[in-house]
Amino acid sequence: MSLAETGFKVLQPGLLTLIQDAGRFGYHRIGLTNGGPLDMASFRWANQLCGNPEGTTALEVSIGGLVMEAQLDTYFAVTGANLPLKVNGVELEGWQTHAIKAGDRIELGFTQAGARAYLAVAGGFSIPVSFASSATVTREGIGGLTGDKLQQGDFLPCAPHATKAMYRLAAAYRPSFSQQETLRLVLGYQHASFDNVQKRLFFSSEYRLTDRADRMGFRLEGQAVRSSLTGILSEGICHGAVQIPADGQPIVLLNDRQTIGGYPKIGSVISLDTAKLSQLLPGSCIHFEEVSIEQSHNLICLAAHRFANTPLERIA
Amino acid sequence: MLIEVAGENALIVYFGETANPQVSARVQQAVDLLSQTMGDALVDLVPSYASLLVIYNPLVTDHFAVKRQIRALQYAEESDQPQTGNLIELPVYYGTDAGPDLQSLADNAGLTTNEVIQIHSEMEYRVYAIGFAPGFAYLGEVDERIAAARLSTPRLKVPRGAVAIADRQTAVYPAVSPGGWNLIGLCPIRMFDPAAEPTMPVQVGDRVKFAPISKQEFLSLGGEL
Predict the structure, then answer these.
(1) Where along chain B do its domains lie?
(2) Does this model's pTM top 0.90?
(3) Which of the residues A11, A65, A191, B225 has the least number of beta carbons within 10 Å of its own beta carbon?
(4) Distance CA A7, CA A152 (A)
(5) Are strands A241-243 and A235-236 parallel, antiparallel or unpaired?
């Protein structure tokens, strides 16, 4: 078998499995959105466990149901949501590297906690990039194999690895997934159009995640908050922006958001917390907490430092 | 110029409160200048009508430094600005078979369909923003006589190449998509082709003029009805 022919065959694609790298940047000017993993921390750990460079192409598995057959010898790791992982029917642990042989069957069951798992392989999947990224954005039909989610029969090329160090991330460093989260938000954009009463309502109320939650944005339901603006001139929307349409129900905009829009925005959820949001299932409870832009930078730098300094346990 | 925090890694710069060619030219100049000067601190830029979203890497820089850089931009003379950008001519087959809302738009405006076509195609438009979908260019502003409110119920499927009006904006749909704009014709030129170089015939800051063509010309340019 030549190098170009080795890889994984998709036996069952699961509910929504997408090829993702770190995302597509620098193309907002022609209307292309970011894509990329919703839970960046879990994505990074999956690659780290496989000894891959940052941003190596992996799979984002929403809810579960992925079954693949390895057609090569290599190593893989699954992180993120808690879902049953089996190889040839034998249950294995997440958050650690596993060796796999040609002919082995990997099965990801359905999530028991969290919403999205990440599956990385040693060296990454060899997917041609479009606009400098392999990230799949189905709405735009860009990235991945064909711009779409994985389909039964798809073939994911990657190079074999006979020897590779194997690692495990200690349980203490893994995220836990709950049914409620407090999302830290930096006030911004049109926040001044929400008066003090509206802001207090926003920060003191409990919201529920609706089932209208996809990679573009998560719609919440709860106490309505009102902006004094009826409309704004369309403008760029950043990751995590919380837009409040006329019905007063917040929408948190995520990786596949439209690049520009015209609803008032109270601020933006920090990326460490959009990752947590993306792991919640419909019905989960959400609170918002205000942080300053300085605090948010501090949190990002501390998280980067912690990631760089968290040791992986070598298991083989 | 007003600079506001948008999020943990983004500032938004407002160059004015309304859309006009001078403000748009400022936005475009800022895009060019920041692309040249921000280096690896810059992640992405989203120019729109009167604003520019500047997305930066908070592990490389902070909002104070980015604000300083934005304030220090040296703009060219006012008088040069509205001339920036290329003039692109886009052929359009206007007709009730290509534009299902052409007749009703004309009726509501108290004009004939030919008058609507003439008014729409004699104006030069500015590309104010690109977004909503890859390659969707917001062009403005159409003559008030043919401005039209969005449909009360958006169509589930607008064909690729549809030339449309909403309020005082006009656009060409780059791909089949849902949409609530009034459709008046079809353009055979692809507004977004991932395989082409450049991927789009227009960019923010360019000027666009529509040239009426016959059904025959439309079909010979590869258009499909």
Answers:
(1) 2-75, 87-221
(2) yes
(3) B225
(4) 15
(5) unpaired
**Which chain B residues are Cβ-neighbours of A130 within 8 angstroms?**
194
CATH class of B2-75: alpha beta
Interchain pair B7, A26: CB under 8 A: no
DSSP string, A36-81: --SSHHHHHHHHHHTTPPTT--EEEEESB-EEEEE-S-EEEEEEEE
Residue A29 touches chain B, beta carbons under 8 Å:
yes
Which amino acid would we find at residue B133?
Answer: A
Question: Does the ipTM surpass 0.90?
Answer: yes
CB distance B158 to B183 below 8 Å? yes
- Contact present, A273 and A184 (Cβ < 8 Å): yes
Task: Give the pLDDT confidence of B163-200 residue by residue, as tens digits.
Answer: 999 999 999 999 998 899 999 999 999 999 988 889 99
What is the interface size between A and B, counted as CB pairs within 8 Å? 141
> For chain A, which residues make up each domain, given as ranges?
7-168, 180-307
| CATH classification number, B87-221, choose in 2.60.40.10, 1.10.1740.10, 1.10.10.10, 2.40.100.10 | 2.40.100.10
Q: Could you say which architecture CATH assigns to the domain A180-307?
A: Beta Barrel (2.40)
